[in-house]
């Protein structure tokens, strides 16, 4: 296996699209109900926890870009093999691919759960899952360029949904935010951990990196993408805190949707039904990018064809989705996933960064030594 | 060479298409439809407490049957839970009774006194019911209110919805959506309030605002008092207020000598206000409320020389004095009722650290012992088109 | 070539005429197809001139000189002689000569140039292409007097060859686009085809897609505009429509009118068109979705009137909507097939009689009538007939999806549409350009139509060799106020 890869220029994507991809993968089903999880820990200071978690994300993404920059054109699968050797590297790569695959599954199932709760209580899981997976595979078959294009469209078609927060803001009770910073550091930290599930997604940068055209602009665009995500999360969090009382927020599972319940237009009421439907456009890029990343892992590690791998992955996702029946199971798996995500997306990139830098320094010293030996 | 035979991918695509078609066909059979004209669209629901402790639910749906004489369809059933009532109502209807268009929910006084928490909770839990649903307390039995044959009101549900909405938008009564009721109910710092509705013969009237302690109804106040409560903790944009002052305060500015002994009625409208509440002492709590208020004088019952700026200043002073006095009264009334509709608890919590977990008892005790000072700063910015 | 041979080559055709000069079985003979060649040339020019020669001894060189034709008219093979004759030529044969002469003549069939009917505009030239390739080329050459106009002639069809002309400005066009077009036409392996619409289906990037990926126009100004921007034009003998490629989805919503009107008007029109397309796709599905699944979304003001209009309708909303849409489609198809005058009657019958009666009979709600009519109207706004038809067809799956999954179905449909469009290419170039990949500088002549002076760059999509159309400085006045 080659650690670095050469990608045909016709398959590459511009740097700004990498920012879109990262942003779109971060925003998914988490944003529909993250408020309660964080407010449980950090109370009315939850927005501070969101901001801090966002800053942490910026830092991790910085570490990731620096890790990737140490190689000419490698992705996580190549780097792991380089650092840990063939066996361990492949094992870690498989784990990462499975993690991506799990992400796609959980996002899909959670979204279907939301639809079943809010819109169609009797709609069988297998129908909606099949439709969403069909839409995803149809796009993935077009390649990363089409996936990136879809992401771009989905972000531009849904970013305006932030504007409808104007309606709940009419009911704002700004005193709910005060006194600022009442919680202690431990509570804040636990609140930040609660953000994991919502803010992971940037780790796909590890996989799309070789496909990015002008890599010198990558860091800026990805950081912008993360920044937009953080601004949205912070804004929605603040609106939720002033819109709900704490006791009410603790009882509201999908607070964002409850916010949207207050939106109405002269020709249209109950905006949340529209929002849930449009949310399909938000979660589809998530599912596509994760499936693609996972399939790409298998291609890199074992040389399987991308098309075949995607076709193989889909039934597995489908079956797992059908096996998750009750809300409890989904929640448990989401909690587990959140813990895995914390290590896979926050802790591990830092470790990898240190290892890569250390290895490079050693290599440089070695080369320097051999260079010095040559004249003799 | 470009060939036009079916490639193997074409075959698999066709298989995929077949799969899709079969999926779609199956969906038709199992998805949950709620076809508009096969649905009983409940627009208003009334809940009464029966003597045996059961709840009587009365629902009103617009009757869209062109052959029917009545514009509305009424169903009333008795049950223990609101969903149980709905299930029973289905037995009396040719259409599926659904609550997605529910706009007003009425509770009778007896039920409200018992506590609305659970019954509102079920409404809030149901995603098909709007958060912008208006809740109301009705004086007598809502069954009588809804079954009364009104001649002019059309669909009673839509009528009541428009009535409340119009008054909320005109800032005549505080906004009382289900969301706001719930927010206050789950907050240890503010008590909910709902419109208090009565029927006078052929007419339905919003008589005042019902005050709650937690989810229990304790008494009602006039719209004027409700105005004052909102003045304490909230902003006005188009409020209105009327008052009467003795004519002698205007002294020489009255046009006719003989008027001096009478009272002048003043009506202020397009009131925009902004209040700032300071907690100047923590224990016992002392709240310092200062209210800035811009208004327009709309009506005077006595000709005055309004072109003199002194007259407007006198009016302003009188309005301030009147408001400060009434505010103290209304706060006293709330303290007597042991409710905190104005939300002083929120202010208290926001201004003190370590109060996040304030219990209901602590809060009630704090309010009981609290003292208040009001300072109103009124400005009359306009006096109509004539002097 | 003797008569037998000619008859054999021409499948024993009845319209072959063999003129013997002076006497039967003379040495000099004229062959032509009486249905194609201009007989007046034969009798007024060729025969009198030939008579002046000593016919018993004359050689082909003298004949050539006497007739005053160029050497390019020499024909050495029987096959070629025949093929020239199929193309209107008169073949002059001298016995024993090494070659014959094929004298071109005008065809006798063809209609005169008329005003465009499919793509009519208010302002701008009122001239449309006709079925004859040479006339069409003449029109383009006439309005585009430049030496850079490059004309390539290709032939396609294994059984019956059809002439195809590929036109481009060689100093502007991206050679790769020309190569793609040339290659696709040359590699065609079909027996024959007649029309540019059929050719477009053969050489398009994705034949299975509903969306056209080559522009088709009957307007010379549109072709000239495309050529100037760097597009490749394909003309087919026998077709009044010219193909332009590569193209993008947005270009199907642009009309030549946009350049004749002031930029604000043109921009307004363009935005209107796109809005109309979305409306056309959304209106009926939203009605179906709302009434089938999301009755909660109907506002209080609409509730009662909608309920009353629906109360007598016996069908579920999905069937109601499909019924109305099919009626509209029937009316449209009937109007298109019938002669113009009868077509108007169809409009009246459809619009008034059926529309009125159907509501009175309680088959459909009057709100749906408004919605369906608005949707149909919007789809007719499309400046390109092809994209209008596409949109009309897409509406049906959309309505079905709305009837099956409500708002969810509509979004799923749009999502599929987005993926599908993103996967399309036109001559290998992205179809959704400049939306994706995003090139804001090309939005100036995409969504909007910026003032002409600011359109100083060519559309980047065509990858033109010369990026600039003119220098911006010249277009702008750099004067101070009151100077």
Automatic annotation (TrEMBL), chain C:
<dbReference type="InterPro" id="IPR050768">
    <property type="entry name" value="UPF0353/GerABKA_families"/>
</dbReference>
<protein>
    <submittedName>
        <fullName>GerA spore germination protein</fullName>
    </submittedName>
</protein>
<dbReference type="GO" id="GO:0009847">
    <property type="term" value="P:spore germination"/>
</dbReference>
<feature type="transmembrane region" description="Helical">
    <location>
        <begin position="399"/>
        <end position="422"/>
    </location>
</feature>
<dbReference type="InterPro" id="IPR004995">
    <property type="entry name" value="Spore_Ger"/>
</dbReference>
<feature type="transmembrane region" description="Helical">
    <location>
        <begin position="343"/>
        <end position="361"/>
    </location>
</feature>
<dbReference type="Pfam" id="PF03323">
    <property type="entry name" value="GerA"/>
</dbReference>
<comment type="similarity">
    <text>Belongs to the GerABKA family.</text>
</comment>
<keyword id="KW-1133">Transmembrane helix</keyword>
<feature type="transmembrane region" description="Helical">
    <location>
        <begin position="271"/>
        <end position="293"/>
    </location>
</feature>
<keyword id="KW-0472">Membrane</keyword>
<dbReference type="GO" id="GO:0016020">
    <property type="term" value="C:membrane"/>
</dbReference>
<keyword id="KW-0812">Transmembrane</keyword>
<feature type="transmembrane region" description="Helical">
    <location>
        <begin position="367"/>
        <end position="387"/>
    </location>
</feature>
């Amino acid at each position: 296996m080659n650690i670095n890869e050469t990608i045909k220029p016709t398959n590459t994507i511009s740097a700004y699209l990498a920012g879109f991809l990262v942003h779109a993968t971060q925003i998914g089903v988490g944003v529909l109900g993250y408020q309660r999880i964080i407010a449980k820990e950090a109370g009315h200071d939850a927005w501070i926890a969101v901001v801090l978690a966002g800053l942490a994300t910026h830092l991790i993404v910085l570490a990731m870009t620096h890790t990737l920059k140490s190689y000419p054109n490698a992705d996580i699968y190549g780097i792991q093999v380089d650092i840990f050797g063939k066996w361990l590297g492949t094992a870690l790569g498989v784990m990462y691919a499975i993690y991506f695959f799990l992400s796609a599954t959980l996002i899909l199932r959670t979204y279907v759960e939301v639809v079943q709760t809010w819109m169609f209580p009797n709609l069988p899981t297998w129908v909606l899952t099949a439709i969403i997976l069909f839409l995803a595979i149809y796009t993935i078959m077009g390649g990363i360029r089409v996936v990136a294009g879809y992401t771009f469209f989905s972000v531009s078609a849904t970013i305006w949904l932030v504007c409808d927060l104007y309606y709940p803001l009419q009911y704002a009770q700004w005193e709910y935010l005060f006194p600022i910073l009442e919680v202690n550091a431990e509570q804040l930290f636990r609140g930040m951990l609660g953000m994991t599930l919502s803010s992971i997604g940037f780790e796909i940068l590890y996989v799309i990196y070789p496909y990015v055209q002008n890599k010198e602009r990558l860091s800026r665009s990805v950081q912008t993408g993360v920044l937009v995500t953080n601004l949205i999360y912070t804004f929605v969090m603040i609106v939720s805190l002033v819109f709900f009382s704490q006791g009410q927020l603790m009882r509201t599972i999908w607070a964002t949707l409850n916010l949207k319940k207050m939106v109405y237009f002269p020709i249209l009421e109950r905006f949340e039904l529209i929002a849930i439907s449009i949310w399909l456009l938000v979660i589809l890029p998530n599912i596509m990018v994760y499936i693609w990343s996972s399939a790409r892992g298998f291609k890199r590690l074992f040389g399987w064809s991308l098309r075949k791998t995607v076709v193989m992955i889909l039934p597995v996702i489908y079956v797992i989705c059908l096996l998750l029946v009750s809300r409890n199971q989904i929640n448990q798996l989401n909690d587990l996933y959140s813990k895995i995500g914390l290590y896979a997306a926050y802790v591990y990139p830092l470790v990898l960064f240190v290892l890569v830098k250390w290895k490079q320094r050693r290599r440089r010293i070695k080369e320097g030594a051999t260079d010095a030996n040559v004249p003799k | 060479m470009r060939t036009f035979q079916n490639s193997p991918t074409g075959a698999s695509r066709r298989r995929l298409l077949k799969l899709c078609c079969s999926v779609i066909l199956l969906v038709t059979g199992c998805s949950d439809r709620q076809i508009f004209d096969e649905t009983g669209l409940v627009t208003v629901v009334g809940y009464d407490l029966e003597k045996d402790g059961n709840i009587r639910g009365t629902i009103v749906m617009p009757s869209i049957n062109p052959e029917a004489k009545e514009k509305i369809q009424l169903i009333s059933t008795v049950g223990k839970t609101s969903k149980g009532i709905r299930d029973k109502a289905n037995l009396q209807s040719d259409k599926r009774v659904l609550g997605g268009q529910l706009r007003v929910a009425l509770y009778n006084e007896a039920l409200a006194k018992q506590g609305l928490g659970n019954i509102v909770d079920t409404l809030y839990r149901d995603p098909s019911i709007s958060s912008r649903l208006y809740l109301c307390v009705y004086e007598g039995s809502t069954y009588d209110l809804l079954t009364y044959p009104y001649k002019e009101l059309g669909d009673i549900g839509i009528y009541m919805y428009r009535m409340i909405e119009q008054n909320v938008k005109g800032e005549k009564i505080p906004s009382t959506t289900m969301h706001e009721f719930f927010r206050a109910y789950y907050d240890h710092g503010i008590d909910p309030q709902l419109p208090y509705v009565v029927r006078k013969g052929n007419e339905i009237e919003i008589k005042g605002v019902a005050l709650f302690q937690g989810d229990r109804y304790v008494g009602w106040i006039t719209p004027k008092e409700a105005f004052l409560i909102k003045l304490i903790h909230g902003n006005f944009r188009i409020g209105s207020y009327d008052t009467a002052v003795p004519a002698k305060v205007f002294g020489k500015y009255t046009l006719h000598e003989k008027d001096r002994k009478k009272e002048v009625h003043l009506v202020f409208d397009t009131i925009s206000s902004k209040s700032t509440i300071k907690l100047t002492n923590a224990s016992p709590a002392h709240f310092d409320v200062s209210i800035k208020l811009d208004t327009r004088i709309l009506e005077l019952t006595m000709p005055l020389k309004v072109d003199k700026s002194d007259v407007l200043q006198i009016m302003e002073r009188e309005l301030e004095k009147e408001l400060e006095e009434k505010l103290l009264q209304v706060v006293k009334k709330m303290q007597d009722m042991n409710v905190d509709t104005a939300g002083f608890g929120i202010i208290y919590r926001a201004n003190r650290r370590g109060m996040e977990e304030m219990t209901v008892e602590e809060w009630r005790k704090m309010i009981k012992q609290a003292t208040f000072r009001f300072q109103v700063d009124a400005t009359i910015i306009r006096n109509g088109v004539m002097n | 070539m003797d008569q037998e041979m000619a008859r054999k080559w021409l499948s024993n055709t009845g319209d072959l005429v063999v003129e013997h000069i002076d006497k039967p079985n003379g040495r000099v003979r004229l062959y032509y197809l009486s249905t194609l060649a201009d007989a007046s040339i034969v009798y007024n020019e060729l025969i009198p001139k030939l008579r002046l020669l000593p016919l018993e001894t004359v050689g082909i060189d003298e004949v050539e000189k006497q007739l005053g034709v160029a050497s390019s008219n020499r024909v050495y093979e029987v096959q070629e002689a025949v093929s020239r004759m199929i193309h209107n030529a008169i073949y002059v044969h001298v016995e024993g000569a090494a070659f014959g002469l094929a004298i071109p003549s005008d065809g006798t069939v063809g209609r005169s140039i008329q005003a465009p009917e499919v793509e009519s505009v208010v302002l701008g030239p009122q001239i449309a292409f006709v079925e004859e390739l040479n006339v069409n080329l003449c029109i383009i050459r006439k309005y585009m007097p430049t030496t850079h106009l490059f004309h390539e002639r290709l032939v396609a069809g294994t059984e019956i060859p059809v002439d195809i002309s590929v036109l481009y400005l060689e100093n502007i066009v991206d050679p790769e686009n020309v190569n793609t077009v040339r290659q696709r036409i040359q590699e065609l392996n079909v027996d024959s085809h007649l029309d540019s619409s059929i050719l477009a289906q053969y050489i398009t990037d994705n034949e299975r897609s509903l969306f056209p990926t080559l522009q088709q126009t009957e307007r010379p100004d549109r072709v000239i505009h495309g050529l100037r921007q760097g597009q490749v034009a394909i003309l087919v003998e026998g077709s009044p429509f010219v193909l332009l490629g590569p193209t993008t989805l947005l270009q199907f919503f642009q009309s030549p009118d946009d350049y004749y009107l002031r930029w604000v008007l043109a921009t307004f029109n363009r935005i209107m068109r796109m809005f109309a397309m979305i409306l056309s796709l959304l209106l009926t599905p939203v009605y179906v979705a709302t009434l089938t699944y999301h009755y909660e979304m109907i506002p209080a003001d609409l509730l009662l009137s909608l309920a009353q209009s629906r109360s007598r309708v016996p069908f579920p909303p999905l069937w109601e909507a499909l019924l109305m849409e099919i009626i509209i489609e029937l009316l449209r198809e009937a109007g298109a097939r019938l002669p113009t005058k009868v077509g108007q009657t169809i409009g009246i019958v459809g619009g008034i009689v059926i529309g009125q009666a159907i509501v009175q009979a309680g088959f459909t709600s009057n709100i749906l009538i408004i919605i369906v009519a608005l949707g149909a109207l919007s789809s007719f706004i499309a400046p390109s007939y092809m994209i209008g038809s596409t949109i009309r067809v897409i509406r049906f799956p959309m309505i079905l999806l709305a009837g099956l999954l409500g708002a969810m179905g509509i979004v799923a449909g749009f999502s599929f549409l987005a993926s599908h469009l993103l996967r399309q290419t036109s001559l290998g170039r992205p179809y959704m350009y400049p939306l994706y990949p995003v090139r804001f500088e090309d939005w100036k002549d995409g969504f909007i139509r910026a003032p002409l002076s600011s359109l100083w760059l060519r559309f980047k999509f065509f990858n033109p060799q010369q990026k600039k159309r003119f220098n911006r400085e010249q277009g702008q006045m750099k004067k101070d106020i009151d100077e």
